[in-house]
């Protein structure tokens, strides 16, 4: 558990991870989905020092109810992919399409 997570957030993480594992998602992907969900909730509730604009302006995970999940029809939004590309320091990301951003982020 990261030091900045409260006991409540750790329980939330474990619940989401277990739910994903029950759906047949791999351990690594379940951990990633759970961590992203908890961190987004923390950002939206003002518990995080660093938060991306997409985390603050997007619907909360509970409101979204699985929309745009990793396995959903559309996947992540272009803005979410751009933020991942920025964190990975992908060159030329500002002119990339959503499909190009998906490819660039997955290749790393």
TrEMBL record:
Ranges where the record places region Disordered: 1-108
Biased composition (Basic and acidic residues): 1-26, 42-99
UniProt protein name: Plasmid stabilization protein
